[in-house]
Task: structure prediction
Amino acid sequence: MGKKNATTQAVNEDKEINHTRANKPHFFNHKPKKTHQPTQAREIRAQETNSLLTEILSELKTKNKLKLEEQNARKEKEERKAKADEEEKARDEARFEEVRYSMYI
Result:
């Protein structure tokens, strides 16, 4: 603690702190205080609930169908690629068999 802090503390200890704005809101706090009022619950009828649930269910079904189609397309693409790789490997082996006899002659 520096010299200035020590002297300031000694001077300020003798004074009473007078809060002139104690009952007023803080300067930087511009939000009004919320008073607790009972919230009015909206009654939702069973018909509205059922219609909302059916709409949500149909939306989820369409999203799931799209995801399933994407997965199937990705799976088919991987299968085609694997099949093409196997065919290329078989062609390479066949060429090597043709060339192998000429290598040792």
About this structure: The first helix runs from residue 3 to 14. The two ends are 96 Å apart (CA to CA). The CA atoms of residues 25 and 32 lie 9 Å apart. The helical segments are 3-14, 46-103.
